Amino acid sequence: MSKALQRDGAVSMLADVDPVTLTVIEKGLQQVCTEMDLVHEKTSFSPIISEAYDRANGIYHREDGRMIAQGELGLPIFLGQLAVTTNTVIRTRDDLVDGDIVIMNDPYLGGSHLMDVRMIRPFYYNGRLWAYLSNVGHWRDTGGVVPGGFTTRSTEIHQEGLRIPPIKLVKAGEMQDDVLQLILNNIRVPNDSLGDVKAQIAALSAGAKRLTALLDRYGENLVDQAIAELEVRSERLMRSHIETIPDGVWSAVAHVDSDGIVNEPLTIRVNLQVSGSDMQVDFAGSSAPCAGPLNTVWATTLSAVYIALKHIFPDVPMNAGCFRPIQVEEPRGTFLYAEYPSPTAGSAAEVSQRIIEAILLALAPAIPDRIFAPPAGTSGNLSLGGVDPLTGENYVMYYFSGGGYGGWYDGDGISNGCATIGISKTQPVEVLELRYPVIFEHYSLREDSGGAGKYRGGLGVDYRMKLLRGTATASFMMDHGRQGPPGTLGGLPGAANEIVVSRDGQAEIPEHISKGEGYVMRPGDWIDVKTPGGGGYGDPCERDCGRIAKDEKSGYLARTSSFMPSPGE
């Protein structure tokens, strides 16, 4: 037996796996997941997955479902969720055999909102359960009150769509047609959804093939040892980063505009207690469970904490070891720990980003040279559904847009960046115009939207979408409409989200500013959206005059803008 290195309860078996082989196996496991991502993307019917990459695939441990690897192209919000999902399947389904695939979307069992549908496949090697392959894809529709599922006025989960417990969609390699038909009969666009079902299954099949090849080459014992060693190394690196944070309790508050029912803000209060290489996170003092669909399930709250720390310390490899030093108290009794039958439609896309914002604000004074100001912090969810008179078929269009990232300690924020929870991109408007009866009349960066600072926030976007034909129902779930993303260390806030809906020539601002549902649209009606800019970093008076001149020349801010001091001032 080689000499073991013991630290914080983790055992390293480094001598059993040479560094070169360890790296090759690590990258091989990641490549299995990345290939699953690509198969999922390339075979999906929905632009949400094929164009915007709203999905993730990973390998999870046979014992407890902890993460072994996740694809580099998978959305970060799913990194904690899929581990909880897989653990749920391990605990509740002891009847799985080789070739089975479980489907589920229950938010309370490791999910988020009902549109994120998960599949879990036990992976067998040489007749033995070796791991689980799990994935998730955002489906355009799973039924419910509004097309696309982003209801803002639901008061219980049953109003949001079809809730699927962990059930077998595939048994020993055979599709269960009765289960499939039950699901498709509760979806507004069953034909396209069938394509997405098959894409997820194909991704799992690709993963099984590639993981088998990896084990054939290196042997399951060596790969097992490598996985254990990678967890130890990831934990050690995360601990070394946490040790750079001064000991103490670091606190901050962030706010959600409203829950869609009661037009008052919801409060997220975070306390980070740092002691050496350990961090404890609690949300004591956050708002109680809310009436509307902004309640957030435990798996999503947990994922949001992990994402925030990964944004700050991006070099830590993603596996179960990465998160061992971070203990998160279950926020029972708050809207950050949703329990049945609380509605959850806005949890993953919106509330998770407010959690990340609170953590960034809390740590800003502790480690200013590692922090960036809060980003736009909304996915800009916009759904439109109806019947296209040109084809006579139902359609559901789900669209999310970018916003500004916050300024950081060494530069300005990114403009039109993806949501903090995603490695995704906005669907090309040309693709949407080809598939749906809409036209985008304009689409541009939003002038003057970045918060002022020594380093300014990035710009949001400004677009208008108009319905061309037929009748459709629009809904939107966004945030940061009351106040823009705050600045950090003296920086100013970015511009707030703005939505205007025009119907029959009458323009209106939604009652809840960033949230609304059931808007019946007719030809010529339009929705205008201006997404938030990122917060500024540092004192605006310290901004370099050359940067200001460049911003003006690029059209990022008007010459008369009050966001920035003029050159020479």
Automatic annotation (TrEMBL):
Domain Hydantoinase B/oxoprolinase as annotated: residue spans: 18-540
InterPro entries recorded: Hydantoinase_B, Oxoprolinase-like
One of the GO BP terms on file: glutathione metabolic process
Database matches in Pfam families: Hydantoinase_B
One GO cellular component term: cytosol
Recorded GO MF terms: 5-oxoprolinase (ATP-hydrolyzing) activity
Protein's name according to its UniProt entry: Hydantoinase B/oxoprolinase domain-containing protein
Species whose genome carries this gene: Sinorhizobium fredii (strain USDA 257)
